[in-house]
Amino acid sequence: MDICIIGGGLSGLAASLPLSETQDVTIFERRPIVGGCLASYDRGNYQIEEYYHHCFAGDRRLFSLLTDLGLSDRLEWLKGSTGYCVDGTIHPLTSPIEILRYPHLTIVEKARLALLTLRAKNFDLGPLDDVPAREFILEHLGEGIYASFFEPLLRSKFGDRRDEVSAAWLISRIAIRSDRGVEGERLGYIRGGWHELIDAMAERAQSRGCRIETDTPVTAISRKGDCWEVNGQVFDAVLATVPPQEIGRLIGTDHFAAIPYQGAACLTIGLDREVSQGIYWVNMKDPAPYGAVVTHTNFAPRERYGEDIVYLASYFGEQPATGLKETMLTDFCRRFSVPKESIHWAELAVERLAGPVYTTGFRHLIPAYEEHGVYLAGMYSPPNYPERSMEGSIAAGQEVAARILEGTDA
Length: 410
What we know:
The chain has helices spanning about 10-20, 60-70, 95-100, 105-120, 125-130, 135-140, 145-160, 165-175, 195-205, 245-250, 325-335, 390-410, and strands spanning about 1-5, 25-30, 40, 45-50, 75-80, 80-85, 90, 180, 185-190, 210-215, 220-225, 225-230, 235, 235-240, 260-270, 280-285, 290-295, 310-315, 345-355, 370, 375. It is of the alpha+beta class and about 400 residues long. The chain folds into 3 domains: about 1-55 and about 195-260 and about 360-410, FAD/NAD(P)-binding domain, CATH 3.50.50; about 105-180, no CATH class; about 260-355, Polyamine Oxidase, Chain A, domain 2 (Alpha-Beta Complex), CATH 3.90.660.20.
């Protein structure tokens, strides 16, 4: 059976591993490298992800995959400290003492927020899918916590669509990030970078005969009897990891549900100084052309890179703002008193379809693994609801592969 996989990101590679054991598999990847949003920059003496990534203690499929690929000894657990930039001041919010000192919430509001964090893993997320996050916060935590804490986060993450986001996403987000101690969140990372996982997956698939065609965007899909023609090649099955509506556009049909998506623009900077007071993740309450300052070298040891590495994270709707790279870099240098000569390099990664927007009612939009004769798996699949993760993308790829293989045995 000849199988075409559209997209060489985590879901596509995860699906290719079991499929290529017994089937002929071809991956079409539009970029020069595989990995999707987990792809990395090659800086010569090190590699660094284009978009910051880490894993969580419950990511069992990821851990199993690392073991299978001989990478389990590369997994390390690091501490992710957090803070909030308000009125030009960075407030650490990692330890209980730091949270108690935070001046922009009252003691009562802090107690309510702490209680919600403790309860997050016990919520029934089903009913919350139809409840806007803003409405939930106002009802359970009050206006002060919404205005001072959650509204800036929702605005930086979802922009004009922040009022459409469901409470299911919010509570899931809180729950997945609640593995905390007094030193911060416990987060997993691959020593050397996540490119080691991507490279190992691609090499394993290719060793089984999988063909990976990079720099090859899919431009046409059409039905040919019981088969599919993709870019002029005939396949018995097509597995798409891009949004369903993109497949519908290529086929020329509106039968696929439109999943709400947003874009991401992430500026990665190498520089000669630390700027965030030793904190890994600083959320921006102050208006800025980015919603968070993520200092990778306050997470993974700086000596591995020989310089400080900072991410500036931004999200957009249809298109990023014109001149965004220079706008972000200029604001960063001004806001954090960084001379331009201290910047060693800066690269802007832009992905128009970076991930779903988990609007109210999203669970009713989630497609099955097979619709209209096409197999579908990606960030919109059931394992990635109501919050996407590497674990969810691996699970989606593995589960759709199992479905395809069941069909070959029928």
